[in-house]
Amino acid sequence: MLREYEDYLRGKGCSPNTVLSYLNDVNQFLKDLNLRPDDYVTSADIRKWIQQMLHPDEGKPFAVSTINRRLNALRNFYGWAVEQGYVEQNPMNGIADLKTADEDQETIMWLTEEEFEDLLHRMRKMLAHSRGVDPEEKYRRDRAIVYLFVYAGLRVEELSNLKLTDIDLEMKRLRIVGKGMKVRTVPISNILLAELQDWLAFRAEMSKKKPHVAASPYVFYSQRSPKFSVRGIQRMIENYSLPNKKLTPHMFRHTFCKWMLKATNNDIEKVRRLAGHSHIATTSRYLKDSYSDLADAVEALPKF
């Protein structure tokens, strides 16, 4: 049954990482409740699992974002199982995502302008410590990646798969192949254009020295591979984290959406198209004022 579900996900055009994530979450649910894929499952079982994650016997509680991701995986799996006739009732009916406080959501979703400026400063100051890594090469590559995340809103899989032929510097646009093999075009701002021109010029020089770079069709490569993998990008971003704030590629995508809403005066449809969201409800969550926005509003009160 799970093998058929895996084939279904691949047939939909889901990326290998998405397929693996869905299967891992479904398998974790089955393992935690000692169930088989075709067992009869009720909403009570789902709620029991949620409570186990919120109040585990050992270790820390799971983050709300992790629990909601797992619930989404089950929602997808059981929706498919009902359609295929494997189960009669969908146990996810009536199960809503957990909600979190504004302050908690704020710390994991996006960067403020000050935090992004601080990140760029830290990237410039940090040197590569790994043997065989050129500090200048790493800095230029990492900086270009961060700018693409923040100024184009790419998903990490989209950035890893980005090819040289997807960049049109003359027309100032990016061709991005997103989830489900959906293609979107994102304009390149002047700020991003300068960063891309700088990286591509440097990359051209490196291709003269490194055969695997010269043979690579991808915009970003690693030290030994012609393609910078998803996990490699994730580790690179995590290495720039602060003790009190872990950085992730998706946090930069959230930053793009948040900043773009502000730049467009909350034009949700524009941001939805740029980010490649299938549903406008996904984009609308960024309309919520950030904690710093609320703090600025309080400070703007009359002073006596």
From TrEMBL:
Coiled coil, from the record: none
Keyword DNA-binding: yes
Domain Tyr recombinase: 106-299
Keywords tagged on the record: DNA integration, DNA recombination, DNA-binding, Plasmid
Location of the Core-binding (CB) domain: 1-82
InterPro entries: CB, DNA_brk_join_enz, Integrase-like_cat_sf, Integrase_catalytic, Integrase_recombinase_N, Integrase_SAM-like_N, Tyrosine_recombinase_XerCD
CDD domains in the record: DNA_BRE_C
Pfam families named among the record's database cross-references: Phage_int_SAM_1, Phage_integrase
Family according to the record: Belongs to the 'phage' integrase family.
Name of this protein: Integrase
